[in-house]
């Protein structure tokens, strides 16, 4: 007697693929899920454990196609921390997990280690409770600020403290003086990434007891001049091909020193979220003279942009942009709540047009973008803690911006920054025409 045997079909387990699984932080990666049932709802979830010990997450909702495939490069997210066709949304839309400390900002402190991103796929469209569910599949990706061969050198000489990053290869290299904002300290990750793109980059520490002494939280103009001179004289640096890259207060320093210093003679400037409003006479540290007069919004967040408004007509209260001797790239967030970046950029343009040197000016202005314009795929931070350098008081500052447009601006401005620097630092003669980005 014959016996009927049922045929059992066993479906393969879902397969989650990340390519490349190891790369630079500004390098795109693809995320693909295979072997899913057709037309099934899934959630892709990304998790980072920060150097500060905090957890950050992002997630997107997807539906598999008829073949059981989800590809973030070609499939739109239907919801989550981002939506639409956003291949890198799993990075730039990251936010602290529920229950985290208030006012966090994700910044890499140890640049010699990677940002480790755990990416998982879950059944259904989830918005919470990821740690309580079992993922269908998980993979780990590494994103680095330092490319293989980049060298990190501690600098404590000539009264200067910082970190010099040198690209791989024999050199000498075009170089950058990297200046961060009014929070001071030593911030290395942008310099490490710039060195990964071929530029020697000195991340300068300032406004700390180590650089300023115990009696003051500021440094004088001579400190920045000493740093520029040290960089210029380094044997691995092309001394006549140095730029300054600055954010916020650091960009104000760059503008003032480029115009008035007889020591600092940069080939070009990149100024992010900046203003030219500052006292011409006296120390650059005087920019913070009225910083205690801050304004709060209805959520008790500190807003500083109005402190510099209206833009003064008194020439002693702003850098004379008509005397700027080198090309400058201004990167402006139109929702900057920290500095009046848009108003400042317009006034700088008018000053340079009147003086006849507006051919040196390139402005990138981004709607929906706040103050903290960082390298690509860095999470947008609208509000975060800020330590007052004078009083060591911690406050919550409103930086501005909306997540998607801000993140798109970071990606676009970074690409154009690299192009701008390559154009002006790799030429053998000074540049006097406007860059075309």
Automatic annotation (TrEMBL):
SUPFAM superfamilies: alpha/beta-Hydrolases. It comes from the Eukaryota. Residues 222-426 form the BAAT/Acyl-CoA thioester hydrolase C-terminal domain. One of its GO terms (biological process) is acyl-CoA metabolic process. Pfam families: BAAT_C, Bile_Hydr_Trans. InterPro entries: AB_hydrolase_fold, Acyl-CoA_thioEstase_long-chain, BAAT_C, Thio_Ohase/aa_AcTrfase, Thio_Ohase/BAAT_N. GO terms for molecular function: fatty acyl-CoA hydrolase activity. The active site is at 248 (charge relay system), 336 (charge relay system), 371 (charge relay system). Residues 26-157 form the Acyl-CoA thioester hydrolase/bile acid-CoA amino acid N-acetyltransferase domain. Belongs to the C/M/P thioester hydrolase family. This is Acyl-CoA thioesterase 19. It comes from Esox lucius (Northern pike).
């Amino acid at each position: 007697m014959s016996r009927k045997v049922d045929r059992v079909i066993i479906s393969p387990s879902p397969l989650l693929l990340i390519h490349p699984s190891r790369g630079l932080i500004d390098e795109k990666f693809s995320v693909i899920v295979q072997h899913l049932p057709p037309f099934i709802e899934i959630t892709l979830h990304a998790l980072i454990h920060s150097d500060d010990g905090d957890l950050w997450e992002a997630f997107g909702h997807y539906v598999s196609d008829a073949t059981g495939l989800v590809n973030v490069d070609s499939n739109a997210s239907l919801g989550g921390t981002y939506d639409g066709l956003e291949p890198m949304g799993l990075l730039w839309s990251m936010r602290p997990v529920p229950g985290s400390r208030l006012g966090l900002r994700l910044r890499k402190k140890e640049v010699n280690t990677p940002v480790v991103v755990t990416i998982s796929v879950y059944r259904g469209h989830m918005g919470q409770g990821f740690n309580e569910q079992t993922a269908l599949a998980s993979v780990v990706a590494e994103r680095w600020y330092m490319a293989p061969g980049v060298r990190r050198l501690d600098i404590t000489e000539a009264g200067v403290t910082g970190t010099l990053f040198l690209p791989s290869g024999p050199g000498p290299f075009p170089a950058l003086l990297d200046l961060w904002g009014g929070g001071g300290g030593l911030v290395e990750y942008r310099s490490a990434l710039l060195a990964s793109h071929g530029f020697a980059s000195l991340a300068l520490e300032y406004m700390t007891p180590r650089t300023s002494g115990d009696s003051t939280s500021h440094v004088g103009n001579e400190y920045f001049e000493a740093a520029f001179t040290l960089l210029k004289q380094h044997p691995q640096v092309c001394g006549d091909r140095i730029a300054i890259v600055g954010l916020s207060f650091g960009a104000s320093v760059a503008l003032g020193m480029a115009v008035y210093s007889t020591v600092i003679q940069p080939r070009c400037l990149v100024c992010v979220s900046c203003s030219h409003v500052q006292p011409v006479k006296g120390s650059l540290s005087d920019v913070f003279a009225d910083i205690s007069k801050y304004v709060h919004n209805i959520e008790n967040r500190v807003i500083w942009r109005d402190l510099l408004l209206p833009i003064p007509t008194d020439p002693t209260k702003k850098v004379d942009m008509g005397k700027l001797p080198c090309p400058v790239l201004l990167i402006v967030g139109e929702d900057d709540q920290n500095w009046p970046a848009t108003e400042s950029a317009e006034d700088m343009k008018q000053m340079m047009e009147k003086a006849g040197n507006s051919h040196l000016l390139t402005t990138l202005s981004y709607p929906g973008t706040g103050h903290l314009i960082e390298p690509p795929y860095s999470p947008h931070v609208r509000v975060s803690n800020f330590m007052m350098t004078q009083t060591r008081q911690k406050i919550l500052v409103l930086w501005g911006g909306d997540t998607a447009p801000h993140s798109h601006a970071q990606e676009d401005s970074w690409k154009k920054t690299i192009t701008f620097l390559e154009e002006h630092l790799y030429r053998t003669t000074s540049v006097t025409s406007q860059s075309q980005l």
